[in-house]
User: What shape does this take?
Amino acid sequence: MDRRRFIKISTASALASRVTATSLFAEKTPTPMSILILGGTGFTGPYQVRYALSRGHKVTTFNRGKTHPGELPAEVEQLVGDRNGNLDALKNRQWDVVIDNPTTLPAWVRDAAQVLKGNVDRYIFISTISVYGESKQGPDENAPTEKYEGADPYKETIEAVRASGFKTYGPLKALSEREAEKWFPGKTLIIRPGYIVGPGDESDRFTYLPVRVERGGEVLAPGTPNDPIQIIDARDLAEWTIRMVEQGTTGSFNAVGPKSKLGMGRMLDDIKKATNSNARFTWVDDKFLTSEKIIDDIPIWTSPHGPEIGYSTMNINKAVSKGLTFRSLSDTTRATLDWFRKQPADRQAKMRAGIKPEREAEVLAVWHASRK
Assistant: This one.
């Protein structure tokens, strides 16, 4: 899959993960709520569940019951159904708020909203920065979102989105946002994350970097040390989402980080320190990476000369003003490695993102030869 399209499924693919309880458990809130989480067993969902429970809330999940069944805490009420037509378990029930994690299609929002309208006070929709489309400068929340140019968005399927190379993913997410606002006017919170990273990320987009840097030796570093990077730890995203629910916040928010500007060089240096590695970084410019047809194999990083640099320069002032906080990169690095080392040996041997070792060595050899 094209790396540049992969960001567009960060919240839609419901990547499964085996996660442990998050470390940032604050005191219980004085006003417990009943929270319905659509999904809840993918990447960020389990962190939402455990953090909400730690703060005294009652949690119900709704999913197909196929992803890691039985792994959520016993106190979670688990409803089984399917967003593609089987919503019976949601009927005639009431919750204070619903968090919609896995939705890509407007029909999913419409169908759930028809059942939940009048029985849920607020709707939290987890969207994506891909709703803005490609841009040279990262937008704030007031920027226009992509337009859907298909025939009928309510007849779209996940299979069709994949077949499009995920070109329709951003526009459909934008329509899903508007669908939520239509059914819950003035009561909708829209959260737009970018690259979600940390323990449990089955995509290996970020995981590749700690694994590779820890291995040491000469490491191909893309672009320049100043190239901007934006990521969000799944635990930070999940916990902030619950706190926003508690505050009763509505509106749209970009949810990436860190708070201060992060360059590729500082990120790699921090990973190196966290892993006690002897890695040596060789910086290879984007033109050479393009000529070697390897630029799309490099995860997380985006060329500053490409059309998608906006994905790495999002304006997050609004989210920070509402309490979005960030773990240290060393924390994310160590936690990601700890999680990855617990995966089966065959899983660790076949990373799902990044450059193959032999290909990296080959490209570095050609790069050094071109410098002579």
The chain is about 35% helix and 15% strand. The radius of gyration is 21 Å. Residues 1-26 have pLDDT under 50 and may be disordered. The longest strand covers residues 120-126.
